[in-house]
TrEMBL record:
Keywords: Acyltransferase, Membrane, Transferase, Transmembrane, Transmembrane helix. It is an enzyme of class 2 (transferase). It comes from Molossus molossus (Pallas' mastiff bat). GO terms for biological process: protein targeting to membrane. The chain crosses the membrane at residues 97-118, 124-147, 221-247, 289-310. Its EC number is 2.3.1.225. Belongs to the DHHC palmitoyltransferase family. This is Palmitoyltransferase. One of its GO terms (molecular function) is protein-cysteine S-palmitoyltransferase activity. Residues 179-327 form the Palmitoyltransferase DHHC domain. The DHHC domain is required for palmitoyltransferase activity. It catalyses: L-cysteinyl-[protein] + hexadecanoyl-CoA = S-hexadecanoyl-L-cysteinyl-[protein] + CoA.
Amino acid sequence: MESSTQPGREHSASKCPRQQAGEPGPAPGRTPRSIWGSWGLQSLATVMCPKNPGTDCCGRSQRQVLPEPASSRSKHTLPSRLARVNGWSKPLNKYQAVAWATVLTLAFGMFGIFIPMLPSVWRSVAYGVTAGVLGLHAVCHLITTTVDPAEESVRQQHIYKEERPTFDRSQQERVIVDLYCALCGVTVSRSAKHCRACNKCIAGFDHHCRWLNTCIGSRNYWWFFATMCSAAAWFVVMGAIQLYVLIQYQMNPTILRMDPHYENTASDSTWLLFLPYFHLKVKTTVVGVIWLLILILIMSSLVMVGKLLVFHMYLLSKRMSTYDYLTRDRKQHSSGVTSRKKTGCFRIQISSE
């Protein structure tokens, strides 16, 4: 499944108003928040100039955290890091390696072991269909990973060669204010969100996909959806081939040994792998173990991709993004605490009846 990196939350401009034209300048010795607003750094001003003494940027008591010396507070700066261009940018994700290893393992097992067992007619069909669906999945996968999902204003700034501040919730409560991102330093659209993992604003932000190691937004969402569809279709085709091999082995194993290279094999318990180029002889037990492992990998991958595909089909029917869905659930969770406390006794009464 996919895991999402939550972007910085927006807040209304009324909390951090910008300095309007014609207003008097700041008094000597003071730095009002209107100047921070004119620079688009409202969130940083909230951190450095809290309203109430003794509280942090979120209004929490500083007694809950270790106090910092006054000198370190004045010199503290947010960490800097390069923005990531796409899914090939470092740091790479271990889930991305797992995804590619799964694809290569399944392709190696199907094309090298089980499809050569099929009769000649079905073998050609299986090669064509499996290779076609796999090729479509590879193309969609590569495009989704390679596309830069950032906002157009962010891509025009050529920010990828310069280190920039990184969003840190302990130092910043909000990043985008009045459609202006304080970290990217550009104006963004209403659907944009700042991704903490990619360190940039994403156009039409949906979620950050660990399996592709990139953000999914309006620029690559449909390629992402096609990746899920092609992956699910590929798993279904491979599952059907595995099922056919099992049925034929139970009914008539000789159908699976029609390749001409089996003519020199005397024992029925000996199987040839990686036909027609190699003739690796193994016993039936080895083939059975490989078949079971491949089937488990196919079914587990199909379940994960299928659940994700159904979820995004639901989101499309509701015209929602993954981010909208998660934030809606979070709001319902925070507003439903009292109601759940009231319905707790009702549930107990039902269970006791």
